[in-house]
Amino acid sequence: MLLKPFKILTKMGQEKNSPLGSISSVLWGIDMLLDILEKTREKYKIEKSDAKKANQKLSHLATCIDHTHGLFSKYYKLTDKTEAYIVAMVLDPRQKYKYFFDNWDKKHHAGMKRKTEIMYKEFHIDDDVTASSSMVDSQQSKKRKADDNDDDDFFDIIAHRFGKNEIVQNELE
Fold first, then answer.
1. CA 20 to 30 Å from 139, out of 92, 120, 129, 163?
2. What angle do CA 105, 109, 113 make, to 5 degrees?
3. At what angle do helices 109-123 and 84-91 cross, to 10 degrees?
4. What does the chain look like in DSSP terms, one character per residue?
5. Distance between CA atoms of 167 and 51, rounded to whole angstroms?
6. Are 150 and 114 in contact (CB under 8 A)?
7. Terminal-residue alpha carbon distance, the chain
């Protein structure tokens, strides 16, 4: 029974066109598996390995759980080195910040929010930049249109890609 969640999550992560097989599923997936390891330890009354008890003999199951928990914890900590995992969850409309507020200790909320804000600021286009770029864009559009003899073939790549004079809002919140 212990390995069933590992099997299910592994298969879900390998499925094509699955909403759960993406980077936004990594953190909650590891959280879930670490929780299952802890519950298994409690269910079978397995002691955690203790550095003070050097000669402590653990059952084979306890040794496997300790090793697996150690590996998952190591990789979980590595996800903290990039904002991508947190940002992917926040941008997932099914999760946003709710997962973090519901499942993470409150002391981690500020760091998580800070990471998303840093990533947002890195890619955010300021209103001043938008206004100046739209002026440049419109000048380029007029120039392209003037250079173009055939008005039917004219198209504005920038307007098509980014929209015409849209009001830029803070979409993070």
1. 120
2. 160
3. 90
4. -TTHHHHHHHHHHH-TT-TTSSGGGHHHHHHHHHHHHHHHHHHTTPPPP-TT-TTPPPPHHHHHHHHHHHHHHHHHHHHTT-SHHHHHHHHSTTTTTHHHHHHS-GGGHHHHHHHHHHHHHHHPPPHHHHHHHHHHHHHHHHHHHHH-S-GGG---HHHHHH-SSPPP-----
5. 59
6. no
7. 40
Instruction: Evaluate if residue 75 carries a pLDDT over 90.
Output: yes
User: What's the pLDDT at 110?
Assistant: 94
Rounded to two decimals, the pTM is: 0.66
**Exposure string (b/e) for 146-165, b if CB count within 10 Å is 16 or more?**
eeeeeeeeeeeeeeeebeee
Asked whether residue 116 carries a pLDDT value surpassing 60, the answer given is yes
Question: Which pair of structure tokens corresponds to residue 19?
Answer: 């909403």
Q: Which residue type does 20 have?
A: L
The residue assigned the tokens 């009001």 is: 167
Residue 47 tokens read as 């002691």
Total residues found in the chain within this entry:
173
